């Protein structure tokens, strides 16, 4: 939840509920961070050579640092993939990948109305 949330108790109640819907999250192919038994959907089992991927990820979750913060807008950094493809094609440099990541992160945070120290 972000600082300044108008309804922090309700937000945490929703987060608690949402993250306990393990089977529903897994059925959508979402990586389950909640603790508990996880059943990997049949389609996902076939995709990964019958490896129980979600159970393995659930085990790995126990080793995560609970204080690790993901930045809001983190998913926008996928723009780096486009620049990386350009670097492979020879139309961009490896350094351009990092510039893209920086520019995209700053732009995304500003678009969300968050202050950014540059």
Q: How would you describe this protein?
A:
The structure is a single chain. This protein is mainly alpha-helical and 118 residues long. Helices cover 52% and strands 0% of the residues. The chain has six helices and no strands. Helix 5 runs antiparallel to helix 6. The longest helix is centred in the last third of the chain and has 18 residues, at 94-111. The radius of gyration is 18 Å and the shape is flat. The model has no long low-confidence stretch (mean pLDDT 82).
Question: Which features does this protein show?
Answer:
single chain, 118 residues, mainly alpha, 52% helix
Determine the fraction of residues in helical runs and give it as a percent range: 40-55%
Largest sheet features: none
Please, how many helices? 6
> Which structural class matches the secondary elements?
mainly alpha
H/E element order: HHHHHH
Number of strands: 0
Overall average pLDDT:
82
In oligomeric terms, what are we looking at? single chain
Alpha carbon gyration radius: 18 Å
Q: Approximately what portion of the residues adopt beta-strand conformation?
A: under 5%
Any low-confidence stretches, pLDDT <50, length ≥5?
Answer: none
Short overview:
The protein has 118 residues and is mainly alpha-helical. Helices cover 52% and strands 0% of the residues. The chain contains 6 helices and no strands.
Question: What is the topology?
Answer:
Blueprint: H1 8-18, H2 22-27, H3 42-47, H4 53-61, H5 79-89, H6 94-111
């Amino acid at each position: 939840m972000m600082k300044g949330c108008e309804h922090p108790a309700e937000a945490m109640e929703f987060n608690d509920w949402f993250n306990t819907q393990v089977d529903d999250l897994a059925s959508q192919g979402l990586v389950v961070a909640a603790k508990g038994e996880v059943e990997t959907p049949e389609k996902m089992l076939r995709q990964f050579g019958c490896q129980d991927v979600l159970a393995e990820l659930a085990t790995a979750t126990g080793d995560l640092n609970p204080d690790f913060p993901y930045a809001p807008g983190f998913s926008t950094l996928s723009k780096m993939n486009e620049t990386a493809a350009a670097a492979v094609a020879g139309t961009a440099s490896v350094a351009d990948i990092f510039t893209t990541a920086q520019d995209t992160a700053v732009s995304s945070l500003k678009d969300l109305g968050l202050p950014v120290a540059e």
